[in-house]
Amino acid sequence: MASENDKSGIPNLSGGLLRWRDWVYLLSLLVPLFVYNLALKASSVASIPGLAPGFDLMRSNVFFNLGYALFWIGLFVVVRGGGLARRILVILLHTATIVVVIVTTSAYQYFQQTGTTLDFGVVALWLPQFGEVAPVLASGSTRWGWALLFVALLYSVLGPLLVTRLVGRWRGWPEMAREERSGASLGNWLPSLGLMSLAIGFGLLSLLIGARSTDNPAGASVSFVRDPFVNLVLTGAKGASSEENASDSSVTSQDVEHPAANASLAATSQTGERNVVLIHLESTRASATTPYNEDLETTPFLDELAESSLLVERAYTVVPHTSKASVSVNCGIEPRLVQPTTEAKPGGIPVPCLADLLKEEGYHTGFFQSSTKDFEDFEGLVGNFGYKDYYPLESLSVEGFEETNYFGYEDDILLKPSEEWLKENGDGPFLAEYLLGTGHDDYRCLATRYGSEDFSEDAMLNSYLNCIRYQDLFLKNLFDQYKELGLYENTIFVIYGDHGEAFGEHRRFQHDDVMWEEGLKVPLLIHAPGWFDDGKRVQGLSNQTDILPTVLEMLGYEVENGEYPGYSLLHEPPEDRTLMFSCFHDKACSASLKGTEKYIYHYGNQPDEFFDLSDDPLEKNNLADERSGEVEERRQELIEWRSSINAAY
Fold it and tell me: Where would I find the Sulfatase N-terminal domain in this sequence (predicted)?
């Protein structure tokens, strides 16, 4: 009896598993997908110094794509012919492939921008606030990246149909008969089960690759070695099964009352009415400023100011993320160590913040921001900090000002509303914060009113350093404004970086998950006329929780009914102090610093790291193997610290 393929004039293949038309249709989709995924992975591997595309780094992708292809071939073997069942199967095939293409391309672009892998936690954070995230994605992706995604998606939808028709015409295949298009039949289950078994086997192999950080060459992370789709699924499953993550997700759970929950201020004989100004330098790492790096002339005004200021030589952020750093500065506590900005929700901060405390003492409070209020939900944060007056970008006139990143304008846009507010509130003591946005990526600072300078041959780094230069120019303009209004002499100015910024020094870019010095070490200066005229230097370890107690001591207040964790920088911090740090994304990494010895814990995603900054300031020589006993102790300390911080929220 003639086979189905014989009747249609099309030869069969593999004992009649599928018709040639089906083979062409499937392979014209699955083979390009295989090549596309491997090409993106090879490009990512090649972009990392010291790595080269090889089977060890590519095998998870190879096995995933083999399993994916065999899975769909097995289904097509079962559901043969035409009809509703086959049409549903074809729709499912294309839908699944589109999802894989989007995940793979997004993971590739994300890695190129940040040096980190795209996991489920990042996606879960983005989806509920896609309106805020969309400009980030648009600014970070190149035209080539968008074109690549468009072509890949277009081919995923139409490519197999067009290829099959072209091959059919070339080979002279007849059109499918009506009964073939309308009817479906069940094929042989035995070959299908064999193909499905192979698909499951390859799928499991793709999951098991990189089970330990020590499995990978040249320190490549487990998540990087995995296929992007596999990594997304596994990190999602891990997050869903984690009881700690489940408990962390509730804003209202408070297992422990924070020691400063009921804090208030008590006046002393030293109490005086001085204004307080917090100046938030966005994405400013210490080494990008002249006081901390004399080889760079990016911030000459800040350098001049440092000569008559208190300068903290070893100041750090707790979490390298703007909203989290703002919690430490304004509230004097470590932020909640989860990636959503839960501190912006009602009741999200467990202690009274500086604005709350000073309002009780008769202070006016105002917050000025050159970026949108939706940026990291700052509208909610500012309200929880206790500021009465709020001036985000939406309340300002942008005429005559240039955009300096995807969510804000040049910082000089704040000068006019600042002047108006100061004229209205300058007769009494006040607390004002200026959140600058110019330092944030995507660093559009080469065409502002102040021109640009050549600081680096690297184009991105040069743009960033020009943004730091712009912030310094704004700083001078702001100080001139205070002098012209007669407010300078009676004001305490606190100038700080919220976090650093990475440019590939340790295969990372930007800041969220950067535990090395370029991401954590920030400038911190306190300038108060009459206080530090000859300059003062603090040499001990400090973080942003020290700002609140320092300001309160300078104002002459004591804290009663509570205790904040930081130390006043009018005195040297304890020599045995240990600083703890956390990446922004949940359990991506954390670190601790004792003296000059830093330990970085990557939660098994890549080998732990241990550096002695006194001998190795650039953190190139990993001593973790030599200090294995101490590494274990430091790891446990970090786990306990994370739990204790989150328990207070």
Answer: 274-557
Tokens 């998870």: give the residue.
60
Torsion, Cα of 8, 174, 160, 158 (10° steps): -140
Q: How do the domains of the chain map onto residue ranges?
A: 12-241, 274-570, 589-649
Q: Is residue 8's pLDDT more than 60?
A: no
Question: Alpha carbon 418 to chain centroid distance?
Answer: 31
Please write the tens of the pLDDT for every residue from 82-98.
Answer: 678 888 999 999 999 99
In angstroms, rounded to a whole number, what is the distance separating the alpha carbons of residues 84 and 96?
Answer: 18
Using the 8-state DSSP alphabet, how is residue 292 labeled?
T
- Scanning 209-312, the segments in alpha helix (DSSP H) are 222-225, 228-241, 243-248, 300-306
Tokens encoding 204: 């499991």
- For the CA atoms of 133, 135, 138, 140, the dihedral, rounded to the nearest 10 degrees, stands at -80
pLDDT-based confidence at residue 164 (cuts at 50, 70, 90): confident
Tokens of 196: 């499905």
Q: pLDDT digit string (tens) for 130-144?
A: 555 555 555 555 677
169 pLDDT band, cuts 50/70/90, is: confident
Model confidence, pTM = 0.81
Are 520 and 547 contacting, i.e. CB atoms less than 8 angstroms apart? Answer: no
- Which tokens go with 280? 């938030």
**CB neighbours of 22 closer than 8 A, spacing ≥ 6?**
76, 80
Give the pair of three-digit tokens for residue 547.
């700002």
Topology agreement, domain 274-570 and domain 589-649: no
Model confidence over 334-390: pLDDT tens digits?
999 988 889 999 999 999 999 999 999 999 999 999 999 988 889 999 999 999 999
* Structure tokens belonging to residue 305: 């100011």
pLDDT band at 175 (very low <50, low <70, confident <90, very high): low
> CA torsion, points 52, 57, 58, 59, in degrees to nearest 10?
150
Mean pLDDT over all residues of the chain? Answer: 87
Which parts of 205-337 are beta strand (E)? 264-267, 275-281, 310-316
Q: How far apart are CA 371 and CA 435, in angstroms?
A: 8
- Which amino acid, residue 497? G
CATH architecture of structural domain 589-649: 2-Layer Sandwich (3.30)
Provide long-range contacts, Cβ within 8 A and 24+ apart, for 416-422.
417/368, 417/391, 418/368, 418/478, 418/481, 419/481, 419/485, 421/366, 421/368, 421/389, 421/391, 422/481, 422/482, 422/485, 422/487
Q: For the domain 274-570, what is the CATH code?
A: 3.40.720.10
If we measure between CA atoms, which residue out of 564, 492, 552, 494 comes closest to residue 523? 494
Kindly report, residue by residue over 458-471, the tens digit of the pLDDT. Answer: 999 999 999 999 99
